Amino acid sequence: MNPVNILLVDDQPAKLLSYEVILEELQENLIKAQSAREAFEHLLRTEIAVILVDVCMPEQDGFELVSMIRQHPRYQNTPIIFVSAVMLAEPDRLRGYAVGAVDYVSVPIVPEVLRAKVRVFADLYRKTRELERLNAELEARVHQRTAELEASAAQLRELNEELEHRIDQRTREREEALAQLFEAQKLDTIGHLTGGVAHDFNNLLMAVLGSLNLLKKRLPADERSERLVTNAIQAAERGTALTQRLLAFARRQELKPQAVDFFRLFENVEDLLAKAVGPRIEIRKSIPADLAPLLVDSNQLELALLNLFVNARDALESGGAVTVAAAASEDARPAGLAGGNYIRISVSDDGEGMDEATVSRAAEPFFTTKGVGKGTGLGLSMVHGLAAQSGGSIQISSVRGKGTTVSLWLPVAETFVKVQPAVEPPATEPLKPASRPLAILVVDDDALVRTGTVAMLEDLGHLPQEASSASQALEFFADGQGCDLVITDHAMPGMTGAELARHLRSSFPGLPIILASGYAEFSEDHGLGRMLRMKKPFTQEQLQAAMDQALSGKVAAA
């Protein structure tokens, strides 16, 4: 006798165990489910002969579950028995029969009665299947006596169905693979686009900030005008901070990874984080004091923590708790993470949480669920960029109504070869800032940036000349002209600023050169490791400082 499958549905494990003990002597296959969802998973995956359902369950009661089961074509005739310690009145029983139950067993259960009822329905199921099998055999014999052509057609139809099934399966697999590839390509495309936009935006901010600072110096003593210009400068500086977040997502900001003690780092920023989230939110931490050091840019990690805590604060409108935890992580790593030792840093809140659709887009730049003016949609994208550029990964898990956890996997410092510090040249007497007008060549393909830089240099009393490309700069020197200093943009069409600097160094080894860029992405094969670099947008004071440093010969390594 082949055992049949009997499904036991009850939210209480103890009751499921008691059913199992009572029915085990029937020697049937007992399948247990603690919720309606779990029951449906078994029903869709397995052929069930008899179903025992508890009436009172928290998420979905037995009446609703049975009604839904009866709507499925496969289980319209499956025997369903209600088991209940309550709702035993006649109206309750009538309701149970109305939704599709065939019997009603009250608690406390009489084992012999329950076994007898289940045995009857199990035997009925077996006999029904045996009858179906005999009918199938009879039909098979009839089919054997049909014409050979009809038999061949039936075989051909069967082969076609199998082929269609395989094609459907392969098509689904291909569509899933294409969807994953599309998602990866989309994020990569957004990253490139974001980096390019941030670079161009930096050039615009360069012109705006330079012009505003020069205008501020020339304004007459008028409090209102000065306030307006100051306000414009502050807005432009906020735009600078925004571009840094964009570059973080695009993985094009310049990081300075070093061994970081996360226990001490969090202690240093804990007060700042507490002020950011406010007094109604409790900060909890679980960070071992002997945690291995991380290899990461400490400033960017502090900024990432601040972004995560601000997001948690916005999810906790009525107060709550934010928990930060750190531990060495070997299990459940995100896909695509390279081998090695990692520390998992998690920031969790018990706020409103997110649904799956929101979680899937949470790290996209400019995507936000906050109201207008309450968020830029760049916080999590910045954290995503930091993790990726640091050789780690990010994972977001959230449950609607229960909270969100953002986990950062960052590499352990000891697993990486430490870069030896560059040997500093012998100390020389620092030069004082130039006391005479200097001839300075400004190379930039953006006319607005070039004009702003020239204006700042003229305001400092120097004699700047302009070149709109690297080739034009080389023509300047080929014509026999000279200068005291070259300030060149890096990202230019044709020849980059780094390539121009390499050409100039081969011909004029002592010529000071300052390389400026909206983002730092220099390869190490240019041989420009000790060239002074300036990040756009820069102020007149930063320009003066860079010039003094370049002319003094004390150029810091990149």
From TrEMBL:
<dbReference type="InterPro" id="IPR011006">
    <property type="entry name" value="CheY-like_superfamily"/>
</dbReference>
<keyword id="KW-0175">Coiled coil</keyword>
<feature type="modified residue" description="4-aspartylphosphate">
    <location>
        <position position="489"/>
    </location>
</feature>
<dbReference type="InterPro" id="IPR036097">
    <property type="entry name" value="HisK_dim/P_sf"/>
</dbReference>
<keyword id="KW-0902">Two-component regulatory system</keyword>
<feature type="coiled-coil region">
    <location>
        <begin position="121"/>
        <end position="180"/>
    </location>
</feature>
<dbReference type="GO" id="GO:0005524">
    <property type="term" value="F:ATP binding"/>
</dbReference>
<dbReference type="Pfam" id="PF00072">
    <property type="entry name" value="Response_reg"/>
</dbReference>
<dbReference type="InterPro" id="IPR036890">
    <property type="entry name" value="HATPase_C_sf"/>
</dbReference>
<protein>
    <recommendedName>
        <fullName>histidine kinase</fullName>
        <ecNumber>2.7.13.3</ecNumber>
    </recommendedName>
</protein>
<dbReference type="Pfam" id="PF00512">
    <property type="entry name" value="HisKA"/>
</dbReference>
<keyword id="KW-0067">ATP-binding</keyword>
<dbReference type="InterPro" id="IPR003661">
    <property type="entry name" value="HisK_dim/P_dom"/>
</dbReference>
<dbReference type="InterPro" id="IPR001789">
    <property type="entry name" value="Sig_transdc_resp-reg_receiver"/>
</dbReference>
<dbReference type="Pfam" id="PF02518">
    <property type="entry name" value="HATPase_c"/>
</dbReference>
<keyword id="KW-0418">Kinase</keyword>
<keyword id="KW-0547">Nucleotide-binding</keyword>
<dbReference type="GO" id="GO:0000155">
    <property type="term" value="F:phosphorelay sensor kinase activity"/>
</dbReference>
<feature type="domain" description="Response regulatory">
    <location>
        <begin position="439"/>
        <end position="551"/>
    </location>
</feature>
<keyword id="KW-0597">Phosphoprotein</keyword>
<feature type="coiled-coil region">
    <location>
        <begin position="16"/>
        <end position="43"/>
    </location>
</feature>
<feature type="modified residue" description="4-aspartylphosphate">
    <location>
        <position position="54"/>
    </location>
</feature>
<keyword id="KW-0808">Transferase</keyword>
<dbReference type="InterPro" id="IPR004358">
    <property type="entry name" value="Sig_transdc_His_kin-like_C"/>
</dbReference>
<feature type="domain" description="Response regulatory">
    <location>
        <begin position="5"/>
        <end position="122"/>
    </location>
</feature>
<dbReference type="InterPro" id="IPR003594">
    <property type="entry name" value="HATPase_dom"/>
</dbReference>
<feature type="domain" description="Histidine kinase">
    <location>
        <begin position="196"/>
        <end position="414"/>
    </location>
</feature>
<dbReference type="InterPro" id="IPR005467">
    <property type="entry name" value="His_kinase_dom"/>
</dbReference>
